[in-house]
Design a protein that fits this description.
It contains eight helices and six strands. With 166 residues, it is an alpha/beta fold. Keywords: Hydrolase, NAD.
Amino acid sequence: MAEQTQPSSSVSSFGSSKFDVFFSYKWADTGNNFTSFLYSGLEKGGINVFRDSEKLWLGDAIGPAIESAIQGSKIWIPIFSSGYADSQWCLWELVQIVQHHRSNGQLILPLFCHVNPYDVQHQTGNRFEKAFQEHEKKFEPNTVTSWRDALEFVGNLKGEVLDETK
């Protein structure tokens, strides 16, 4: 895991956090463009960001390392893109984020990158709806329900909508 750093002055402290910010995103959609630029800007500003492609070490067990990073972060930024709901990892992360938010109150700052918050909240729109049709065939109903609940909760939060005009 990454070395523990002192909390940034620009982010309030929640106990013994390892990271100021945790990104949850679909690499194929935003990882090599928007998320990379956001990551670089925050890191240059002294904000310690967990992004799996940068902070996981070879040989780390992915699930426990990500769960530890989620638990050890002050702010979570899910970056919703058209393919976000295709990824069981993204959905699993989101469930973890919502669970920790409900118990500890840390801030969730959703970014809707070329997707409508309504489609996230209600799993509508072409990609979200199709993703859940596939998930319902492959996964237990309680797992799919937990994913839907997390998307509904976070999709209902005030977030930044990024579209072609921004």
